[in-house]
Design a protein that fits this description.
Strand order of the largest sheet: 7-6-5-8-9-14-11-10
Oligomer: single chain
CATH topology of one domain: Transposase Inhibitor Protein From Tn5, Chain A, domain 1
Structural class: alpha+beta
Number of strands: 16
Radius of gyration: 36 Å
Number of helices: 21
Helix content: 40-55%
Distance between the termini: 70 Å
Length: 589
């Protein structure tokens, strides 16, 4: 009888058989065998035939018999916690690459909280209370030790940051507006507004709302950028501040605090008015140049009979430089955009027709005798005639029993003759800036408008403002501006992964023509995929996708060590980090 105490192991055998048809078949046999030594010879006994078992189970039995120990998967590694990480790691890495820690100030808990507020504003805009609650559910709170931060600590960090605003903005101005970094020597400035909740903020006032929130108290804030629209500085004003007043403050900041003497300020026609220009000319200590545009009445005066602005100027070219004694030592560049002219003509025709349609029921009521009396008719007509801002183009004839409306044909024709025409006004001499470059510089104000959209709606959600104290409102706007600076760089870096145009036309042959997206951007927009056939996302969608890259705390065994481990990144996540020039970090440090 064989000895029953020998070692057991798995053996595998393969046999090859060639059939009559010439096909080769392989038979594989897996046997559980016991071996022992008897009379100096090795003996074997087949205990079981394992061939019918799955290959994975046979492999497990073989390795177990060789001495490997196996435990259930749940006992081997347990995911004790999983936190969103990828989006925070990417934005944090970009902030470090831009020098944000040193930019904000000396190391300490205030700086950590301020930087966390900026990063959080990029990723998940919300109230300060909601943000502090969210920190505990992310690696941001765990790695910076701010998961338990109180609202008072956050407000203290905001106060600390606001006290450093001048220093921060001076550093950014030296970085992006100084002659070495800004060969064009230009800066863009524009004003916007946002409404507030509550009624006790000293800055809150009722003024012209750019958000369409009539009757709401608001603040205004001016944004200063470099020629590419990169945010550099922001200034908060009371809600009833006029555009020219804000421009005066911007000039003081550039001249007195940033010490930039030869900069050219670019602002719209409501910002840089004739009165402000006269004040700049009268200040001998100020050498700042400016670029703006004329308002419609001034253009109409230039286009009057025997004036320098005649349609024949645009027979061969769509821009021409003209002069006028009302603008001494200045340059005027007249432009005509046919596409803009056609659009304005279409819009005017639609609004004129809409006005007539709106007042038609009232005319019918008067004709039917259901609304007698000139005073009553005038009251109703006055409420309707300017519904679409077209009252200037109509004449109303009202009696006690009649109401008629007629178009002012000659006035409409005179306005239509100037459709698509605008005039750039600048103090910059021709040897520094040719006419085409002056037009391009003015059109770069579109970059500031894009920044305002980013700050107020699509990215950072500045509005409405819930803070009551004046300095807290200023700190809130400063946080949003610094977050916009971060978003500006992230959007550029991640352009290949998003719908952002990677090849914007920076030097158009015709600066008057409308801007157009590149062919590659149109292709991305139509296919929703990049040239590598990877999905294209919006900027916000890319951040959401990066958030799925989690950091998982794995505990090995019931009492074993806990090891933080990243999930396997997707190709898009890997490329997002490659584009900002950093490996995927395990922790925010």
């Amino acid at each position: 009888m064989p000895k029953r105490g020998g070692a057991v192991h798995v053996t595998s055998h393969r046999r090859h058989y060639v059939g009559k048809d010439g096909r080769e078949t392989t038979y594989e046999t897996h046997l559980l065998r016991r071996s022992w030594r008897e009379d100096g010879r090795v003996r074997n006994e087949t205990v079981a035939n394992l061939s019918h078992l799955p290959g994975e189970l046979i492999e497990l039995i073989s390795r177990s018999l060789k001495g490997e120990a196996f435990v259930p998967a749940s006992a081997a590694a347990t995911v004790t916690r999983s936190l969103p990480h990828g989006h925070l790691a990417a934005v944090w890495a970009q902030a470090k690459a831009l020098g944000f820690p040193a930019l904000l100030g000396p190391a300490g808990p205030h700086r950590d909280l301020a930087l966390a507020l900026i990063v959080s504003r990029v990723i998940r805009p919300g109230s300060k209370l909601a943000t502090t609650g969210w920190w505990a559910d992310t690696t941001l709170g765990a790695d910076l030790g701010i998961a338990g931060a109180s609202t008072d600590e956050v407000y203290a960090a905001m106060d600390w940051l606001q006290a450093r605003q001048d220093s921060i903005q001076a550093t950014l101005a030296a970085r992006h507006l100084a002659p070495g970094a800004n060969p064009a020597g230009m800066a863009l400035f524009d004003l916007s507004s946002s409404w507030l909740q509550g009624s006790h903020c000293p800055l809150a006032a009722r003024g012209y709302s750019r958000d369409g929130k009539k009757g709401k108290p608001q603040i205004e804030y001016g944004l200063l950028t470099d020629p590419d629209g990169r945010p550099v500085a922001v200034r908060v004003f009371a809600g009833d501040t006029a555009d020219p007043t804000a421009f005066v403050e911007a000039v003081k900041i550039v001249h007195e605090r940033f010490r930039l003497e030869q900069l050219v300020m670019v602002g719209d026609r409501g910002m840089i008015t004739s009165a402000r220009i006269d004040a700049l000319k009268a200040d001998d200590s100020n050498h700042l140049g400016w670029i703006t545009a004329l308002r419609a009445p001034a253009i109409a005066k230039l286009a009057a009979e025997h004036g320098p602005l005649q349609m024949s100027l645009f027979d061969q070219h769509d821009l021409a430089e003209i002069t006028h004694p009302d603008y001494p030592d200045e340059r005027l560049i007249a432009c005509r955009n046919p596409a803009l002219a056609a659009e304005r003509a279409r819009k005017r025709a639609d609004l004129l027709a809409a006005t007539e349609h709106a007042i038609a029921p009232l005319i019918a009521r008067v004709q039917a005798g259901r609304l007698p009396g000139a005073d009553k008719i005038a009251l109703k007509a006055g409420a309707l005639i300017n519904k679409y801002k077209m009252a200037k183009h109509f004449d109303l004839q009202i009696t006690d029993t009649t109401l008629t409306i007629t178009r002012r044909v000659e006035q409409i024709a005179a306005e239509a003759a100037l459709d698509g025409i605008y005039v750039i006004r600048t103090s910059v001499p021709a040897e520094r800036l040719d006419p085409a470059a002056a037009v391009t510089a003015y059109k770069q104000l579109a970059h500031v408008e894009r920044d305002f959209r980013s700050i107020k709606t699509i990215d950072l959600d500045l509005r409405p403002v819930h803070h009551r104290l004046e300095d807290r409102v200023r700190a809130h706007v400063l946080l949003c501006m610094l977050a916009a600076y971060l978003v500006w760089h992230l959007r550029r870096a991640w352009a290949p992964l998003t719908y952002t145009d990677e090849h914007p036309t920076t030097e158009r042959q015709n600066p008057v023509a409308p801007a157009r997206r590149s062919a590659s951007a149109d292709q991305k927009a139509s296919r929703h995929r990049d040239p590598h056939d990877q999905p294209v996302r919006s900027f916000r969608g890319l951040l959401d996708h990066l958030a799925t890259l989690t950091r998982n705390d794995l505990r090995y065994g019931p009492d074993g060590p806990t090891v933080p481990t990243l999930a396997e990144p997707t190709p898009t996540q890997r490329r997002a980090f490659d584009l900002i020039g950093t490996p995927i970090p395990l922790a925010l440090t």
